[in-house]
Fold this sequence. Notes:
- It is built from 20 helices and four strands.
- The chain has helices at residues 2-8, 11-14, 18-32, 35-44, 50-72, 84-95, 100-119, 122-129, 132-154, 173-190, 196-210, 235-240, 244-268, 281-298, 309-314, 320-336, 345-359, 371-386, 390-407, 416-434; strands at 78-80, 157-160, 164-167, 303-305.
- Strands 1-4 form a two-stranded antiparallel ribbon. Strands 2-3 form a two-stranded antiparallel ribbon.
- Helix 4 packs across helix 5 (50-72) and helix 9 (132-154) runs parallel beside helix 18 (371-386).
Amino acid sequence: MLKRLEAYFEFARLETNWRTEILAGVTTFLTMAYIVLVNPAILADAGVPLPAVTAATCLSAAFGSILMGIVARYPIALAPGMGLNAYFTYTVCVKMHVPWQTALGAVFISGVLFLAITAIGIRQMILRAIPHQLYAAVAGGIGLFIAFIGFQHAGLVVRDPNTLVGIGSIRNPTAYLALFGLLMMVALEIRKVKGSILIGVLTVTAIAACMHMVHWTPSSGGAGALTQTAFKLNIWGALHKGLLEIIFVFFFVDLFDNLGTLVAVTKRAGLIAPDYSIPRLNRILFADATSTVFGSFMGTSTVTSYVESTAGVAAGGRSGVTAIVTGLLFLGAIGAAPFIGVVPQAATAPALILVGSLMLAAISEIQWLDPLVAVPAFLTLVLIPFTFSIANGLGFGIIAWAILHLLAGKARREDWLLYLIAALFLARFIYIGAS
């Protein structure tokens, strides 16, 4: 049986094994487990019952990750997306006074649209239309993005009213523990120790516990709480209220965040083919879209691929087993969701910083001496972390690519979809600026 599973997940070709894949899955889970606490806290502000949305978050992440692992066989974990959950709560429900059940209906419709355009091949066309030279910029930009998040979690980068950001205090226990964890992980990486990131996370967690820095508050919940949100979505209400703008935002942002994450993870794992295509792309997109539909039924906002999957890839994960392990841990978290907080940010922050630094290796592939490539790549690279959005960075890069190639007289008729995407991004930025 194990031999058949190893053949299905292509262990031999990917040069991996069960131990590596399991460690990678645990690593991915630890770096993104915060969503079990953060997503419910955000959606609760929209009126969604907290115990129910906690269970829905875990179940949706489990479903999406396991589906991705089995069907697409990629080490990509999924969960309700950050950013879109805030839009769901504070813009749609709070500002526009849309009931959370109706907002879930809009999420469902956007997921069905994903499935439809995946079935007819439009999402695949969009991915192929993006110049492969921008792939490296997306990977590097996401590396800076997650490293920046890591520095924030470590308390090394803090808000500053004059310069937006500044350096935090090195005397802060979270900061010096995170730096210790980073040094430990790098030392283990240099020595080629398998599971170096996971070892670092667990070591820092143990030290933090000894320093009384680990805190959590048990609360009620569990799978039984799902009855408060499961199948409570109001699809007709979303259609009746004419929430086309909301549906478009859910659809548009998730589309390009997902494509950016997909490119970054597959590139970091060395899974992109020599012709820059991604094998089994249809299955990846199907898993992502189906997970959003499932999440809306369970009671949570848009489910998407998580950039923290790169932590598992950095730990050696190459097959779908990594995603399956992550999903199983999320499944187990349904009954133990309050205890996920036992892993402090001081332990996960160095993992994000290390993974981010490793992802920057991709920018060596960019032709920096060619302005037609360098400028769009640079905009993509820096605006992903600066705007806290993969979609925004990719959007500016595509717009710059299109305009510069038009001005240089190097536009090609076969690139019509790229120019259409650039026009849509431009329209989106103009709309955001006017709203």
